[in-house]
Amino acid sequence: SSANQIAYDRSRNDSSYIAADPNSFEPFSKKKICNAAGAIHSDGFLAATRHVARCVGMESSRKCIEMEEIGAAHHVYDQTSKSVESVEMSGIGRKESANYILGRDASESKRLSDQHEVLLKAAGGYFPVPLSVENEKLEAILDVGTGNGAWLTGLRQSGKIPTSVELCGVDVSAKMMPNQALCHKSGLDLRVQDLSEPLPSSWDGKFDYIHGRHVFIWIKPSNWPGVISNLERSLKPGGTLVIVYPGTTGYDLKTEKPLAHNSAPYRIFTAFLKYTASLGFPREAVATLPNLLVEAGFESKSILTTTKRINLGSAEPDPELRSAATHHLDFLLQLMQDIEHSPEDNLPAVGDQLGWEKVLQGWREATDAGFFYDLCIVSARKPEK
Predict the structure, then answer these.
(1) According to CATH, where is 3.40.50.150 located in the chain?
(2) For residue 210, what are the β-bridge partners?
(3) InterPro entries from the xrefs (predicted)?
(4) Apex CA 280: angle with CA 278 and CA 282, to 5°?
């Protein structure tokens, strides 16, 4: 597809990605197929492995392709079930959710790892707001919607907290979590948990700090009051909750004004937001978070909303992050192309309306020139008593 082609184009100019012509997979061995898919997957393109399988006539048969090692766990792609299972994941649990539309396979795990450093810098580090307790006195931290545990693993390796701090993470799916042996080695306690259901009673009043990045946008707003109540109960008195989510506006790097409405990034962002809203995830609902926090018992005077900046493409000044910043949102292109059912206004068909080549060319030009969008952080503190 045209989105796969943009991945190939970028891989030729980026040594961190494996260059492989998407039209020449057939002669490849399975391992080379895997590597080629990994190159495209590293851009977050969810359909890449299915595309590879179609090229070699595997779409209708039940076959597994051994994937590269992603993070700390080996994964296998099951072409029939369209899922990725960790070979060493027994005993963690299999609870699933249909809410997360970006996939839970090896490509999504890789995308989240690449995205982690970009978002971490944008947020200002692991602690974007002051905590009520000094880092040296922290005892327990919880990451909700932890995915592959990249945030927790990075925090453990950062040296910013004592090695004695308990690091816990929950996610509604175990598919991207590292295996238990590696969790133990890293000192991580990762569990399958639906946030709309009560957290373990042993966690009541346990955590100094609860962090949730890009998780509330995949929970239906009708469930937010219950989720916030569950998190409040798990915080220590004086503990801090931080909720991070992406903004909805992209900005031109030179003028620092919102992107033109006829620009490719604006049209893609708008299409994506309309599509997710049609699934029951309206982004404007985040405006209700401060009131919901007050209703859940957080100190009203402690509630703070701040806006940071995520640099994309050449807008990222750090050369070590520029590649990840360039590829950060490319997955939207493939996602919009793969959508089978559009909302009533048919906005996800933006590529068909404008012509995909025009959209892709505009996307390349925008990322080459650089642009940025908002990262929003809402924080609140539980009363001391």
Answers:
(1) 111-381
(2) 142, 241
(3) SAM-dependent_MTases_sf
(4) 80
Beta bridge pairs of residue 77: 65, 84
Q: Which of 44-48, 58-62, 191-195, 354-358 has the highest mean pLDDT?
A: 191-195
CA–centroid distance for 41 within its chain: 14
Strands (E), 32-145: 64-66, 75-78, 83-86, 140-144
Q: Give 317-362 pLDDT, tens digit per residue.
A: 998 898 888 877 776 776 666 665 555 444 445 556 656 777 778 8
Whole-model pTM: value is 0.72
* Cβ atoms 139, 166 nearer than 8 A: yes
Q: Residue 308 CB: number of other CB atoms within 10 A?
A: 17
pLDDT per residue over 70-91, tens digit each? 332 322 222 222 232 322 222 2
Beta strand spans in 79-165 (E): 83-86, 140-144
For 226, counting Cβ atoms within 10 Å of its Cβ (0-12 exposed, 13-18 middle, 19+ buried), the class is middle
Closest by CA position to 297, among listed 360, 213, 226, 381? 381
Both tokens assigned to 242: 């931080």
Q: What's the CATH code, domain 111-381?
A: 3.40.50.150
pLDDT confidence tier of residue 176, bands split at 50, 70 and 90? confident
- Rg over CA atoms, the chain: 21
The one-letter amino acid at 277: A
The answer to whether 84 and 78 have CB atoms below 8 angstroms apart is: yes
Query: How far apart are alpha carbons 368 and 98 in whole angstroms?
Result: 35
User: In the structure encoding, which two tokens stand for residue 120, read together?
Assistant: 């971490």
Q: Do 210 and 240 touch, CB atoms closer than 8 A?
A: yes
In 183-254, beta strands by DSSP E: 188-192, 207-213, 235-252
Task: Supply 81's token pair.
Answer: 């079930």
Q: What amino acid occupies position 266?
A: Y
Judge contact between 104 and 83, C-beta under 8 A: yes
Report which of 298, 297, 299, 324 is spatially closest to residue 312, judged by C-alpha positions: 324
Rounded distance, CA 312 to CA 113, Å?
16
Residues sharing a CB contact under 8 Å with residue 207, sequence separation 6 or more, in sequence order: 140, 141, 142, 168, 234, 235, 236, 239
